[in-house]
Design a protein that fits this description.
Radius of gyration: 15 Å
CATH superfamily: 2,3-Dihydroxybiphenyl 1,2-Dioxygenase, domain 1
Number of strands: 9
Strand order of the largest sheet: 2-3-4-1-6-9-8-7
Largest sheet: 8 strands, mixed
Structural class: alpha+beta
Oligomer: single chain
Number of helices: 2
CATH class: Alpha Beta
Helix content: 10-25%
């Protein structure tokens, strides 16, 4: 394992959250994906992504953060090698389920990803390098 790639936070007020993380915490806005109303903020070598609770991606998490809804959409772990055949075999051997897969943008750029659930239902993205 190389470390975390990015975190995605569901927000009720994107503007306030973006200003907080950039102006107060010191993150840098590196990209705004207008199709998904998604802000990619640089936090050192990693990214913090902000999405609207009522937006396309945010709606997947249910209600606004609170007793009935989760605030964290998923977190990504950057892996060194992305061997799709070996990863699918590992998933099968460990009786896991791939929730989603495809090319996604992360801290090192666009690259392959697979999404799994942990034992409590949290979504983990295994993120490969851009050149995989």
């Amino acid at each position: 394992m190389l470390g975390l790639d990015h975190l995605v936070i569901r927000c009720v007020d994107l503007g306030t959250m973006q200003r907080f993380y950039c102006d107060l915490i010191g993150c840098e806005l590196v990209r705004h994906n207008e199709n998904f109303d998604l802000y990619h903020l640089r936090a050192g070598a990693q990214l913090i992504d902000l999405i609207a609770v009522d937006g396309f991606l945010g709606k997947r998490g249910g209600a606004a953060p609170g007793a009935e809804g989760k605030n964290l959409d998923h977190f990504a772990i950057r892996i060194a090698d992305f061997d799709e055949v070996a990863l699918h075999a590992w998933v099968s051997e460990n009786d896991l389920e791939i929730v989603e897969e495809g090319e996604r943008f992360g801290a090192d750029g666009a690259g392959p990803s697979i999404y799994l659930r942990d034992p409590e239902g949290n979504i983990i993205e295994l993120k490969g390098p851009p050149d995989a």
